[in-house]
Amino acid sequence: MRRHFGFLLLLILPFQAYSQDLSADELFAKARTTAFEEKDYSKSIEIAKQALQKAPDYTDISVFLGRLYTWNKDTAAARAVFQKLSDKNVQDEDYFIAYASLEYWNDDNMKAVEIIDKGLTYHPQSEALWLLKAKAYYAGKEYTEAEKAVKNLLAINPKNTEANNLAVKISDFISKNAINITYNYSHFDKQFTDDWHIVGVGYKRVTPIGSFIVRANYANKFAENGTQIELEAYPRLSKIFYLYVGGAYSNNVGIFPNYRTGVSLNANLPHSFEAEIGYRQLYFSNNIWMYTASVGKYYKNFWFNIRTYLTPDNKNISHSYTGTVRYYTKSAQDYFAFQIGTGISPEESRNNLLENETFKLKTFKIGGEYNFSIKRNLFSVGTMYYNQEYRPNEKGNQFDITLGYTRKF
């Protein structure tokens, strides 16, 4: 036993002697390296404590120690560190961020806001504090307050990526109700003699479990009329995941599919990424199954997205790809959009063309959209150009114009 004890002393004493020779700054640097590169929070905590023995009033080290306890899930120890700093009336921005983050990550959103508000009295231009305040209110389902916080942040820096990302999510919850009307006009130079007209009227309701939408569509295609009823839901599963569930029915087959269904799993990922994977099914006289996946990314004022639809049959798999870029201006409802792609999407008004398997022929599309808001009134105008191979080696052009109006209340 004595031999083992002596062996441990031989290991520990040189380290202690070495640590005693290091300055507080050097120990601080070592603690950070141990935490970030080695991911050994327990060891980093011990090094940070040694640094504080050399410099008890070194605020940055104390804040870092509080963060280490937070990451190590020792919330009691983390709170003790931050409370000591509070008793000293520390006013460092990083202290308020670290302390509020602890409470936010532990679901005490109102405590987090209380800490943030105190920090903002000293640092009113802090983007990190305003963002954390918006996140805390959003997590606590205080969407009006979350919107105020994110607007303050975007007034400081309109290109803040996370703020723009969060603003889009918050906008869906600000008003519990919305009605909208859309009109789509399509002109063909060769494929069809008659122009198409589609009018849709919808109602959206935001609930604690997610959003629900009911929509009625009227279309005049091929000089014939048809109607369709749609239902969509976006139930939330967690802070990260939510579903899209949709269905539609029409007894005017050819104008619309007889019925369609769709389900997707959506994820809000770190670093302002988002992703979706799911299926869409259309039934005319036969079923058409499509599988979809998309990846999106917010960057400053921009949102980038690429989506694919894959439609398998007995011989091959048909592909559709669409790339979208949005540039947000003053809010989540105000943006310019550009779109380019190939193939036909089941989300488009042209989806009745899928019945004759023209989706297996070549299609190119390019278009733009402008959305703007006036208080609770949202307006949109868009245009799209298609070059469609509607029969093998025969192409025609299509020009679309879409107008939309939404009233939130």
TrEMBL record:
Q: Which lineage do the record's taxonomy fields give for this organism?
A: Bacteria, Pseudomonadati, Bacteroidota, Flavobacteriia, Flavobacteriales
Q: Check the record and name the NCBIfam families matching this protein.
A: OMP_YaiO_dom (TIGR04390)
* Domain of life of the native organism: Bacteria
- Organism encoding this protein: Chryseobacterium arachidis
Under Gene3D superfamilies, the record lists:
Tetratricopeptide repeat domain
Signal peptide residues are 1-19
Does the entry feature the keyword Signal, yes or no?
yes
Domain (YaiO beta-barrel) ranges: 176-348
Intervals holding TPR repeats? 127-160
Q: Which InterPro entries match?
A: Beta-barrel_YaiO, TPR-like_helical_dom_sf, TPR_rpt
What's the protein called, per UniProt?
Outer membrane protein, YaiO family
State if Disulfide bond is listed as a keyword: no
Q: Which UniProt keywords apply?
A: Signal, TPR repeat
